[in-house]
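Form 7-S
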Amino acid sequence: MPQQLESAWASELEKLSAAESESVWAKLWEWESDPASDRDPGHFPESRRGTRRANQLLEPSRLFSEERWFSMDRFGSKVSWRVVLYPDCAVRTTEIIGCIAKVRKEGYPRLVMLFRIFSLAVILSLAACSPKKPEPLAGIVLVISDGTSTELLTATRVYAKGVDGKLALDDFPHTAFVRTFSRNGVVTDSSAGATAMARGVKVDNSVVGQETAESTTFPESIVDIAKSAGWSVGVISDDAVQGATPCSFIVENRTRGDYPAISSKIIEALGKRADIVMGGGSKWFLGPDGFSKADEKRTAEKTQAKLRDSKAAFFTNWDEFKPFAESGGDGRPVLGTFAPSEFSYYIDGERSLRLVDMTQTAVKFLEAKKKPFFLMVEAGLPDKACHANNAKRAMGEVLELDATLDWLRKNLPANTLILSTTDHNTGGLILNGYLPRKMKGDAIVGINPGTNASVLTFASGPGGDPQANIDASGNAKSTSDPDYKQPALVKSGSAFHTGGDVWFIGAGPGSEKVSGFLQNTDVFRIMAEAIRGEKRSSDQFRNEQTYWQIPDSTVIVKPDFAGTSK
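Output:
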């Protein structure tokens, strides 16, 4: 029926002569528009009664998903269309909502009548469409770029592409700002930031996976929710796997710096909470040889024995690990550590293994299990570079992040939720004025000839020392040297974290909730709702988003999705 009416509508337009010059836009919409509505032919007012009637039919069942406007010249007239996609229906419906035509006065009544009939037929077709079960999620990938401010993203874009260029992350369709304060601080550290995203609760700085250092029970992690739903789980990082971000997803510990204890707990988590864990940090699994103190040697021996007695497959050689993992493994959980601690900076040229390589291999391993998966990927090195005021290294690591996001968008199924954010800003990086628009590359890490000042500066860090860029031979380092430290206002051995809101991007089913101003705990909520199949609209989500108040007593805190905590 709608197709037949569309043909009739088009046929009527075909009869119109371009020479017949009277515009009847206002008359055509007179029956549809409120008296005060804007009747400019280039504008489509939202106040049309027909549109409002259609929206009233759609709203109760929340069929409406996506809207696109199109215009085209057809039969000498400009026809405007609104294409409405209904994911819960078996059909896609195209609704003509506007027409600018130069017509005869006597042609007007028939056009209006056809338009009215067509609009009614479209609305009736919506009511008759049969429900269609939405496609289940293939998985969720959360990519956390540690210590990566929006200013660092901008600097990286200009450095690599020029001011008019684009990074892969620029093409994510949904964006939001995120507040990052911790339970006990205006400015978060990495463990509190990661725990908020992993578990949906605000916690004290320096603790891992729990509210306070004294807690004896712990918030459930997103990996627990995924496992309970029958999903596979992976956690990877180019930092040590014992680092604050990756370990916050799979272990709990009273302090983030206790790598020996965290290493032992990671072994316990293999299989129960994670099917594959990858990154650096091998020295804490390889026995006593890497340690000098007696107590450290004893602890390392115990950890090595525990790993040996576990059912996990353990690798430290990438060339041996990759074919094993990409074939789906042998049923055992997998631990792969490919550097003694964190990885070296990729831009320094000391390694060939990249974050995107580990991501590809982890995805293949998880997909081989033939069930949905949750994967957390950390780009941990932008933070470390910013702590050292090494802007070129930081930008190089953001490009590693971007390559990973680009691969994920191009290679994962469309029904995969891909999210990316940072835990906090580090160092207070600033891109200073006024560099000529055409400049890019190493000019960004150099001196602006117009101001004779550094293009990039930090708020704090070792760059505040006037001797920071003098090498052991007494020579000044080149600004293009990756180890060059950009100037810092406040001298400190390591740059401070800063408390500004951070970026958050998303693509795939459920990513429409990445919108507006959110809390870092909402990262957890978006993922948990996606795993549990909750279908609240993005407006409902924003209205209910909150951060979780932590009770004084040490009881387990499970986020309640009505907006309170238990």
